[in-house]
Specification:
The complex is a heterodimer of chains A (384) and B (400). Chain A has 384 residues and is of the alpha+beta class. Chain A is 47% helix and 13% strand. In chain A, strands 1-2-3 form a 3-stranded antiparallel beta sheet. Chain A has a 3-stranded antiparallel beta sheet with strand order 6-7-8. In chain A, a hairpin with a 2-residue loop joins strand 6 and strand 7. Chain B is globular. The longest helix of chain B is centred in the N-terminal third of the chain and has 39 residues. Classes of the chains: A alpha+beta (384), B mainly alpha (400).
């Protein structure tokens, strides 16, 4: 039995006055993930257009960088993407190190990867949980957040914060791993991996859930590349590109992990279900990475010698790293002073927002929610 | 009822000398008030508390547990809070319709209680068209919902109202058609008549009468859930899509009234399913004492009906929401044809199958049904045990 809906087609009878209505979805709408706004033109339930309107959460973070200096900007990077703050920390540290040509102690690289991968799992848990909630199943959300809570505990033990970590420093990390952290981390992974299967049986393979997501808002590989989608959204369309594997940084070349791609297991490659499942698969891969890292953390210091007055030579640098929302780019121009001349952050959510207008044509209003959730948009990352 | 009113007039109490035409409505109003305030509203309220608790357990949360023992009085606190809140009517709304809509919704649901047989003597009015009456008055709810959606002058509300109208009207068809097999078997529409045609034993229930009534039971329950705007069919208020659907603009007590209807309606669904398929209040005649018998009958009926309330909560906590077009597909492409087949199948069954063979089928189906229930609960127990967190599981947490 398939619930695959009707081919919706609106036929207008002459002499019967109907008109499209313009709906304002957001910024206070419950499922726009923060303060996104969409101007939806709909014919009854069927949308003809959904135009995203961004900018409600703009905090001029890039401009702030020019005023607070290199070290001082680190806490602000947490706020670029507060769901996955660790990769932002790491990106800023990496671009500064590239500018100044600094070496990072090997133990610090392990700390960074461990923290980032834990944060990636936490971010994906929030993504898949809120996806379930947007489709109308409330239980998966609480179960996902319950597991995320333990990661928050671990990261709190690591750096004292649960959301905005401010853990990474230019030239290393702020604090060494706390005692017994490796054992706790491994224990968490041992327990978390079977829970992914349980979560799958709870919601992922639910008939209604699959029907809701399969074949909805299909993004082809060509479209995904043209619209500059990154990370899980790009890979769900079948493009096997992961910055961690293809443009390796940190210790990722030494680690053994797969890059899952969308397979179209419920419908077509690149539909909402693929994007959803890909995040589940990535959590499993992150567990793999974490297990390797936690088992072989080398001894040593975690912070290299970095002058307090950090003045990188004149020049510019661009680094790419894989955040939870994909290819994150950090560009920094230095004029040789204590303050960066210009900083530009390239984020995955911003480009993902641009494809909504294209894929939402002809979908139903309920599907727009699924699309937003499946692209895993995080409003602060869009606006910065 | 008539004898009671006449005796009250003759007794010379408060109603002494009052003409029957005046006394009868007064007495009925009095009874109605007692039933509504003493049973219907508490049932809806307690259901709301229980739903939140059950939901919380399933979601590994705690739920409301502050007001009263185990938070039992939470529903009273919520009601009081909402009564004291400001009742905002948007300036662009249609004032009259906006104010009227919640009352229509609540009236539609309370009116069903007039024909629900809680026990052999406990029924407000044993109408000879009982089940038809219930199907009809629940239709008033959709008028109220549509009215709320339109009068709010808000596009989300309007979408919710229209979704609700489409949904309730569509699902009344499979619900109505699933009642037909039972009506065919009993030859009556009266609720008491339907119950009296069944027995206390499970094999005498219409659920296990023949394969067609068995399917009709599930069809009716699903259709009733859809009519009651319950997950997975809660698209009219679909929080994540339509903000709050038709009640987006409502606040205070009027807002609560919509939810009162939703929670109370759960019990109505359970009561109707119990009446039609599960033998209603039927118990073995174990005592001559009418009072005890009535109380036991009431208890049996209540438990059976409340089991379905619990089931609806469970379903709501488990399943995601279907889309509008999928909802319509499910109704028109699957449920309506199956319901029609059921109806015809029952008619043929009544003519073709002999009584002895019918008896055999009933008992076989009962055993099969019991086996399904046992297996289901074994599986639930297995999952519950597996999911229960051992204290050792927490050892990686730095806090605990």
């Amino acid at each position: 039995m398939s619930l695959g809906g009707f081919d919706v087609q609106v036929v207008r009878e002459s002499g019967f006055a109907t008109e499209e209505m313009t709906l304002n979805m957001g910024p206070q709408h419950p499922s726009t993930h923060g303060v996104l706004r969409f101007v939806v033109r709909a014919d009854g339930e069927v949308m003809t257009e959904a135009v995203p309107d961004v900018g409600y959460l703009h905090r001029s973070i890039e401009k702030i960088a020019e005023k607070v200096g290199y070290h001082g900007f680190m806490p602000y990077t947490d706020r670029v993407d507060y769901v996955a703050a660790m990769p932002c920390n790491q990106g800023w540290a990496m671009v500064c190190e590239k500018l100044a040509g600094l070496e990072v102690p090997r133990r610090a690289e392990f700390c960074r990867v461990i923290a980032t991968e834990f944060n990636r799992i936490a971010s994906h848990l929030l993504a898949v949980g809120s996806m379930g909630m947007d489709i109308g199943a409330y239980t998966p959300f609480t179960h996902a957040l319950r597991e995320r809570e333990y990661i928050n505990d671990l990261l709190e033990e690591l750096c004292g914060a649960r959301l905005t970590f401010n853990y990474v420093r230019i030239g290393g990390v702020g604090w060494d791993l706390p005692p017994d952290f490796e054992r706790k981390g491994l224990a968490y992974i041992e327990r978390f991996e079977p829970l992914i299967d349980e979560y799958n049986s709870l919601i992922s393979f639910n008939k209604i859930y699959k029907e809701r997501l399969a074949g909805v808002a299909v993004i082809s590989a060509a479209d995904a590349i043209n619209y500059n989608l990154t990370g899980p959204n790009l890979r769900a369309s079948g493009v096997k590109f992961d910055v961690r594997r293809d443009l390796p940084y940190s210790i990722y070349p030494e680690l053994d992990f797969d890059v899952p791609v969308g397979t179209g297991e419920a419908g077509v490659v690149g539909d909402c279900f693929d994007r959803y499942m890909l995040r589940i698969r990535e959590m499993q891969e992150s567990c793999k990475i974490l297990r390797q890292c936690l088992r072989q953390v080398p001894p040593g210091s975690v912070l290299g010698k970095v002058p307090r007055k950090f003045k990188p030579p004149v020049g510019d640098a661009y680094v790419r790293l894989e955040s939870a929302r994909g290819d994150m780019g950090w560009y920094c121009v230095s004029d040789g002073t204590e303050y960066p001349y210009r900083v530009k952050i390239r984020t995955g959510s911003f480009t993902a927002t641009s494809i909504i207008e294209k894929v939402s044509r002809g979908l139903m209003i309920a599907d727009l929610i699924a699309v937003i959730a499946s692209l895993d948009l995080v409003a602060p990352e869009i606006d910065r | 009822m008539k004898e009671l009113v006449l005796s009250l007039i003759a007794d010379g109490g408060v109603l002494a000398g009052v003409p029957y035409a005046v006394a009868a409505p007064l007495v009925m109003l009095g009874f109605g008030a007692v039933v509504v305030f003493g049973f219907v509203l508490p049932i809806a309220g307690i259901t709301s508390w229980l739903e939140r608790r059950v939901w919380a357990r399933i979601q590994s949360r705690v739920g409301p547990n502050r007001v009263g023992p185990q938070g039992f009085l939470q529903w009273l606190a919520d009601g009081l809070k909402n009564l004291l809140k400001e009742d905002i009517i948007p300036s662009a709304a249609d004032r009259w319709l906006f104010s009227l809509a919640p009352y229509l919704v609540v009236a539609g649901f309370i009116a069903t209680f007039a024909a629900i047989p809680f026990a052999a003597p406990l029924i407000i009015a044993d109408l000879n068209i009982g089940i038809l009456y219930i199907t009809a008055v629940t239709g008033i709810v959709v008028v109220g919902v549509l009215m709320a959606g339109w009068a709010s002058n808000n596009k989300w509300s309007l979408l919710g109202g229209i979704r609700s109208a489409a949904q309730i009207i569509s699902y009344e068809i499979p619900a109505g058609l699933s009642v037909f097999p039972v009506v065919l078997l009993t030859g009556t529409l009266s609720m008491q008549g339907i119950i009296q045609a069944q027995g206390w034993a499970p094999w005498d229930w219409f659920l296990f009468h023949n394969p067609f009534t068995f399917v009709a039971f599930f069809l009716f329950f699903v259709a009733a859930l859809a009519e009651g705007n319950r997950t997975p069919f809660d698209i009219p208020e679909a929080e994540s899509e339509l903000v709050a659907g038709f009640c987006t603009e409502y606040s205070g007590m009027r807002y609560l009234l919509f939810f009162l209807e939703e929670w109370g309606n759960l019990y109505v669904i359970g009561a109707i399913v119990t009446t039609l398929f599960l033998g209603g209040w039927q118990v073995p005649a174990f005592t001559e004492n009418l009072l005890v018998l009535t109380l036991v009958q009431f208890g049996v009926f209540f438990l059976k009906a409340y089991f379905f309330v619990f089931l609806a909560m469970w379903i709501r906590a488990t399943l995601p929401r279907v889309r509008v077009d999928q909802l319509m597909t499910l109704c028109w492409k699957y449920m309506v044809p199956i319901a029609i087949v059921n109806m015809l199948g029952t008619a043929v069954w009544m003519i073709v199958v002999s009584e002895a063979l019918g008896r055999l089928v009933q008992i076989a189906m009962t055993i099969a049904g019991a086996a399904i229930v046992v297996l289901f609960f074994r599986r639930v127990r297995f999952h519950l045990r597996r999911a229960r967190l051992q204290p050792a599981d927490y050892y990686y947490s730095p806090i605990i």
